[in-house]
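look at this one:
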Amino acid sequence: MNALQSFREMFYGAEGSGEQTAALFSSEISRRFLTGFPASDGFVVITKDHAVFWTDSRYIEAARQSVRDMPVEEPENMAVQLYRFLTEHGVKKLEVEVSRMSVRQFRRLRQRMAEVDVSEDGTADDCLAALRCIKTDEEVRRIEKAQRIAEGAFGRILSFIRPGVTEKEIALRLDYDMLSHGAEAVSFETIAIAGENTSKPHGVPGARKVQSGDFVTMDFGAVYEGYHSDMTRTVAVGHVSEQQKKVYETVLRAKQEALSVLRAGLPAAEGDKAARDVIEKAGWGDCFRHSTGHGVGLEIHELPNLSPRSEYVLQAGNIVTVEPGIYLPGAFGVRIEDMALVEKNGCRNLTKAPQDLIVL
């Protein structure tokens, strides 16, 4: 079943979504999920029996060659053609992607759609988010490929890290390596930080030079056919102190404990708790200041979250990061991150990079 069919099954099975209701998607991410085609402009409209992808002249030829599940059209006037389409198919209610539409866009759409109830109840958003949480085999394949590209870069960067190189040089080398080995983009701005800067969970690479005795934390990922990977490794340079070693081992145990409990049916908050309990029992609970993980797919951060506040119950097909950390301000920090595919009776770790402490 493709994304369009899956959406129809869920949306028209939802309470209140009758045959006279249509869904409109305007965001780049949602359009790509539904059509498989990347474009910076366009709209997808779906009714119970019809669908159309409107895009402009920059993409029309490529889209018609690529999109198989719905017709592709180039609108002369989007508002006019949308209203005509809705009228032709007897649509009385239009569900819009309110989580990704500005207030101004919503108001203008409502003004132009006479006799059509333009709804802001979020049903279309909720259905698509629920679908995107469960990865298909093809989506898993793309994420794994992205991860292999990132892991290759990690393996090669180790020989480059030494006293005297800067954080920025490490980040740039990682980016170049991923892009030159098959990535279409990097997943986000690569984090490569050293020494006292590793106590900042999202530190920005700068001119600081690596020194002997430093931890170096690298958080990075690759994009392959639209899908992201995400990994973090912390390595040591020259030598480590007993405190550094103890912190590293605690974070590693926390990650392993979380991975050991992940399974379909587990509340996501329990996945977070499994990692957090290890760190709290070791006495560093106040030094773990973010959630344990998040979903990964067409976006680098998507549902579900492994968070103390999450109300989500994990399902087979979820892909989540597991990335506990301990951060000692002004001293150092450690974060270790894997991606896991949730399965019926456990999870499959999609990250194959070494996890034991590496001293360069």
Summary: The first strand starts at residue 21 and ends at 25. The mean pLDDT is 94.
